[in-house]
Amino acid sequence: MEIKILLLLSLFFGTTLGQSLTCNYADSIVLGQQRYVCTLNIQNPAGFDEFTEINGTHVEGRTNANVTGLYLTFSSRTINFPRIICSEFPNLAHINYALMDVVEINENTFSGCPNVEWMRLWYNEIENIHERAFASNTRLRYLDLERNKFTTLPENVFNGLVNLEELELSNNAFTTIPDGLFRPLTNLRVLFLVQANIETLNPEWFAPLVNLEVLTVYGNNITVWPEAALSNLRSLRAFEISRNPIGNNLPANAFRDLSNLEELFMANIGITEINPAWFQPLGNLEALFIYSNSFISISEGAFDGLRNLLVIDIGANHLTESAIPGNLFRNMPNLLWLICDYNLIQTINPEWFQGLTELIVLDFNFNHINELQEGVFAAFRAILEIDLWGSNLKTVNRNAFGNIQNLTYFDLDDNNINAVDERFLNEAFPLSFFYFRNNLCASDWFYDFAANREQLMPRFSTCTRNFEFIVVTSTELGEAYRFYTAPNPGIQLRVNTNRGVRIALTPFNFLWSPSVEIVIGSNNNTLSTIIRNQDTQVVVASSPNIIRPDQWTGLRITWANHVILVTREGDHYPFLAYNLEHIFPVQFYGISSPLSRAVWTIQPVEADFLPTNVLKL
């Protein structure tokens, strides 16, 4: 019997001695307020709750009554909130009790902290919370219960919290949220329900929240949207429903009562078309994010009610240039930020920008843009940033831009740029952040380009030299060959025409022998051929529909090592190849469109772009 008693005493004292509470006291600025803070090191993995003291030495002249803030050290471990904390520090106003293993909040846990205004219980293991857990904490203005183990909450748990302004309930796997859970929170301004396993928007939840300004239900499983779900949220200024499988279940009048809304996030919700009725009541909207959806076109007038819009993001959909009306943004005179990245756009329509004189950021990253036509950005007066990363560009021409006196950030990484207009580099005077990695004529990036322009310009010498060979022109039906100086080792051309075209390679600026003519789209657009000296057909290849009416056809033509190679844009291997039997220097190339008018853009090919695994014929 005595041995048993000794063992029990040993276990008791061993457990007790393993628990400790120690404060490091200091004055600190917390959320803009001066506070006397206890940074608590708590070692209490067993959840002991019979502490008699908190160790630590106060700053001279201070006592427990002066402590208004509580933080935990990173090394702390506990599964509870010992009662002694509130009894020793009755004037606590700020409690940060995050990243512990607390499993339960009972009726008495915070009853001794009547002055607390800010409480964070983020990232604990709380499954159960008493309905009177916060009954004594009526001064609470901020409460964070994110990342716990809640599946529901007592309907009356927030009773008395009339001063609560911000509530965080995200990342809990709720199976039930009582209808009246938020009924007492008439002064709530911010509510976060991110990834909370919600399947519907219950109008009963939001009916009392007449002062709510920010609501996010991001990342839930919402498929049901009652028409009156948000009807009482007339003070709402920011709303996010992104990453919910709503699809086309969004009612036309979903935002009918949100006339004060300023920010709306609708990304990745599975909509396949835009209903203009959604936005008609939102005359005060300043930011609209509808990226990562599944719509392939936008109807004319879809955004006509959004005259105060400052930011719009329609990126990561399936939009081509023909799917975006030219006047889509016409009623957005204050637009500052236009994002259209990760789409399928090949040609930027300058009509989109008419009237957008105040735009400062344009993002078209990761489209399929082959060129910037003349004047495409001429409407911009104050542009600061242009993003064209990964967009398949081949040339940068000064004539594509208007005023670039404010341009400070330009991203051209991962294009196929082989020529740059030196005038652009010289006139983009404030350009500091310049990204040009993984292009053909240069690969570099700068954060101080403007300050070191003179020293850095030589790095673009190949680019600017190649620009001298750029040709942008048109040829008329039946017009004779028009000749240009040929850059070695070849040319990259794009042609827009309805019938076949010809390209001649000669040592002269006229057609004579020796010569090679490349005929693209002959025999009713079924074949392409190579003709030697105007009369001998030496190569024939099947190329059905290589010329597509009113579309661009891209070709790469090279003549290195006396081998003529013709490759379609985007392909690695040529579809026409000819080994010159009688070697001659290619000094000039000519272009002709004998059967219809054609528009051409032509630039040099870099030697590095040549295939290395094509055998001579």
TrEMBL record:
* Keywords from the named record: Leucine-rich repeat, Repeat, Signal
Annotated ranges, domain Farnesoic acid O-methyl transferase: 490-603
Q: Which InterPro entries match?
A: Leu-rich_rpt, Leu-rich_rpt_typical-subtyp, LRR_dom_sf, Methyltransf_FA, SLRP
Signal sequence region: 1-18
Q: Give the Pfam families listed for this entry.
A: LRR_8, Methyltransf_FA
Repeat in keyword set? yes
Q: Name one GO cellular component term.
A: extracellular space
Q: Which SUPFAM superfamilies match?
A: L domain-like
SMART domains per record: LRR_TYP
**PANTHER family given for it?**
AGAP008170-PA, INSULIN-LIKE GROWTH FACTOR-BINDING PROTEIN COMPLEX ACID LABILE SUBUNIT
This chain belongs to the protein called: Farnesoic acid O-methyl transferase domain-containing protein
- What is the source species? Chironomus riparius
